[in-house]
Design the sequence.
């Protein structure tokens, strides 16, 4: 089976889908791996690095897509490239199927079996394939680093002959994978950390990392079977804002991570809340790419609102592309190897398998994912 790995064309994307050690493992499975020339350059991997582990390097992008049985990439494909792939090809990447219905329709029309990595279930078996978690981990780390860089204070307490500097205060909203890594990173840098989430069940995790959990009585809340926060009512949102405003007033850095799967990010920090914050403080909006948690945040911009710097840097994992690529590459291999038929040397996506049911969107000229079909 021929696997084509495509060079990313999305502006500003420095991550790569596969690194040479992963390619070597795929070759050992019996796959023919073809790499687009220059694919690894942004992570300092040359074409020779891939050739040395058994891959073929090709600079004919169109020809690669036309001949591949499996196409691996990081970002969703351009519409015009879907038509180039042969019927029955398996395409694996981020897809954003809730918002890219035209792309899903094109995959269906061209009889492509497309796998959306965002749709992998939050199960024990699928954990090793979970690109959202691996990339969110790095995003949480980078949010703290960027926030600290923009702050005109240091994070740790420091005792000097000239006096004692108090530790900076960091308030993290949303305690998923990104939020937990942000807590851990801020604590390692010596900050005093508080965190809030609508799911009371995460309080123990927050405390285990040495942070304080901010309690706000919202009434009945919870999480979905996949671990995502349940959408709040308008009344609960207002209560949440009132409670968070008190923590934001004291914070030097606020990091927002709240996202709703398949929907725009909730607006949880508004301008009246920002107006109460100390001039010179910093907000990092990690949800800016899906609409933003912070009123006034702009994608890939730093906006000054009443003396508060609001950072809307998108694609945070790409800031540490080498590690992000390592993790994404391993996730891809774990997915492919899970369904690899060692005897036939093919990728077999069992339609009855729980993982396949969740993440395969189109197959055989039809939309087979029930959630996307119902849209």
Sequence:
């Amino acid at each position: 089976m021929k696997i084509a790995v495509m060079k990313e064309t999305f502006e500003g994307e420095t991550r790569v889908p596969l690194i040479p050690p992963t390619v070597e493992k795929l070759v050992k499975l019996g796959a023919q791996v073809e790499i687009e020339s220059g694919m690894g350059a942004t992570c300092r991997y040359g074409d020779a690095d891939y050739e040395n582990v058994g891959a073929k390097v090709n600079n004919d992008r169109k020809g690669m897509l036309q001949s591949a049985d499996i196409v691996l990439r990081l970002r969703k494909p351009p519409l015009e490239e879907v038509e180039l792939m042969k019927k029955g090809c398996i395409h694996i990447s981020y897809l954003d199927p809730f918002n890219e219905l035209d792309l899903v329709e094109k995959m269906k029309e061209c009889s492509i079996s497309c796998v959306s990595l965002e749709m992998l279930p939050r199960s024990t078996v699928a954990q090793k394939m979970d690109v959202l978690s691996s990339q969110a981990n790095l995003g949480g780390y980078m949010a703290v680093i960027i926030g600290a860089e923009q702050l005109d204070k240091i994070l740790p307490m420091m005792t000097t002959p000239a006096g004692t500097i108090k530790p900076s205060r960091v308030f993290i909203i949303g305690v998923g994978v990104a939020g937990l890594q942000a807590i851990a990173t801020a604590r390692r840098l010596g900050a005093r950390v508080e965190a809030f989430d609508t799911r009371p069940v995460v309080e123990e995790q927050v405390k285990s990392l040495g942070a304080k959990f901010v309690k706000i009585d919202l009434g009945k809340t919870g999480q979905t079977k996949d671990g995502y926060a349940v959408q709040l009512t308008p009344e609960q949102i207002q209560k949440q804002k009132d409670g968070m405003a008190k923590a934001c007033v004291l914070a030097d850095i606020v990091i927002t991570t709240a996202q709703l799967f398949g929907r725009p990010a909730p607006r949880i920090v508004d301008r009246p809340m920002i107006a109460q914050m100390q001039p010179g403080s910093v907000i990092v909006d990690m949800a800016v790419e899906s609409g933003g948690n912070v009123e006034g945040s702009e994608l890939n911009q730093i906006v000054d609102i009443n003396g508060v710097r609001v950072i809307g840097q998108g694609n945070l994992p790409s800031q540490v592309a080498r590690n992000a690529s390592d993790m994404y590459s391993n996730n891809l291999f774990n997915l492919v190897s899970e369904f690899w038929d060692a005897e036939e040397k093919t990728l077999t996506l069992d339609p009855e398998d729980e993982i396949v049911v969740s993440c395969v969107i189109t197959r055989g000229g039809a939309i087979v994912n029930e959630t996307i079909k119902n849209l």
Observations:
- Residues 136-314 form a domain with the Rossmann fold fold (CATH 3.40.50.720).
- The mean pLDDT is 94.
- The longest helix spans residues 131-150.
